[in-house]
User: What shape does this take?
Amino acid sequence: MKRSSCSCLGLALAATLACVAATAQSGSEADPKIAVEIPDGVPLRVVATDFDQSEFEPRGGALVIELAGSIRFRHEGGDAVRAMTLAVNAHERMMGGRAAVSIPSLHAPRGEEFQVHVNLRMLRPLPLPPGPVVRIAADAVLFDTLAAAGPDRLDSARKMRVREMEARRDREFFLTRWRAGGRDELASAMQASLRRQAGRPRLDVRLGGEGPATAGAFGSPREIQFAFVQDSEAPLILERGTALVTGTVSDAPRILLRNRAGRGVRRFELGWLVHDRAGKAYSVGSAPVEGETRLAAGQRFETGAGGRFEIRPSGASGSMEIEAMSAYVRSVQLDDESVWVPSRAALEESLLLDSVPVSVEEQRLSQLYRQRGPAAVVEELRRFTSDEDGAPGP
Amino acid sequence: MSTSNRHPDERKLSLFAAEDLAAWERWLIGRHVAKCPECIAVVSAHSRVRAQLLAESPVPQADFKALAHRIRVEAAHATGPATRERGWRWTAAAGLAAAAIAVVLVLPDGSLEAPPSRQAESEPSESPLQVPVFYEGMEAQVTAEGTLSVRSFHPGSGVMTVTDYYMP
Assistant: This one.
């Protein structure tokens, strides 16, 4: 009796798993397991989805979702689409259950179709309730006018505007090099970018839990004072900063800053770097910021957020003791929704270009150069600028 | 004989609810918990208490994470099986910020190896978010929201994608 009941249970479980796997892999509109939603006000239509390569594997009490596929959209609005962000949800409260996929540097005028690739791993607990396993919804779409549409629950519009401003800055830089010296000059600039990207020290960063770092092999926590790379054009000035560090683990830094622009600031990002004993600088990303970040003209603000981060050099078997930290103003969104980012000249003068990741657009153009050569880069630059008649220099 | 046929002790279940076990042990216990109503109930009870603690106003100057860490250190030295009552006290005192009822450690290559060493008693608590293997070679950067952001390039279309992984 016991053996028979076990067999029945096993068969039932296998049948359930087979159902989950079979119905979840298809990406057609009729399939409810991967739902793609376009909220009202977003002028896009889903033309096709293909998630046949996705896999759904139960492990213990959770379902591991290897989401791999693409969505084809058609733009049915007016201004050209420059970027979009998709909110991807498997489970709100489970680690690995939420993600956002952002696609910058699109070039989709009205009536044109474009494809978005989604490739990530997610988790959700079992058993599965009725309904889609994964919901993909457009969170925001950015147009070439820098206006945005969509619910924007993830602050996607601002992030896309920042990337677009960085992209325009860097496209202009490479376009200038092309105009000055033609294909050879552009190739030289691309090779310099690739060398810089390859030579930049990299980190493996892991998100730790809440609360202060506790004592470890590196002794008691110590407070590190920040050094700042100030940009005279930045709307914010950084005044003071500290972080509690134990060996390779750091709390989110606390940085005091002041709005020196003559108008209000809505949001900002501060670049965060750590330095090892040899003085090598590594980019961690942005200093986490919690809560309301609106600043009136002249107002001061101290960042602070929960969370700890384990920081190690990429590929290193040993650890790195954090010797020092520095920060810089990475982006600022003003009250009128305009976005400030550092100029390329400022990044070069401050030597930040050697330490911080290149912009998404520069990375994309350099990858295009690697794969397809300078002609492909020229074509891309022409697509995004009005320089249809631009000619290479002597 | 399969481990899943025996009930894990109370202490293991409380640590499981708090996601504070080595990967292989979490996987073994997870398999049992998924099929055992009694152990599901115990894990759920621990998770409920944790959720209640999280919802309460913070006690000024109380560091639950440091307290939880000290409790885990003591648990590592504890002898004999924990009683159900002791398990409740540990979880209540810890206020650990874990997620769901059952937890799976997702590793980049899909294997179930133990996570980076946590044997040192004084190592800080950690719930690492593993970056999937198809981003291997591309770095992850922290964002102002505290997410991990990873870029990838699709050579066919020439499109860059930026993926942000959110903590619950």
Notes: Chain A is about 25% helix and 35% strand. Residues 156-199 of chain A form the longest helix (44 residues). Chain A touches chain B through 83 residues (CB under 8 Å). The first strand of chain A starts at residue 34 and ends at 37.
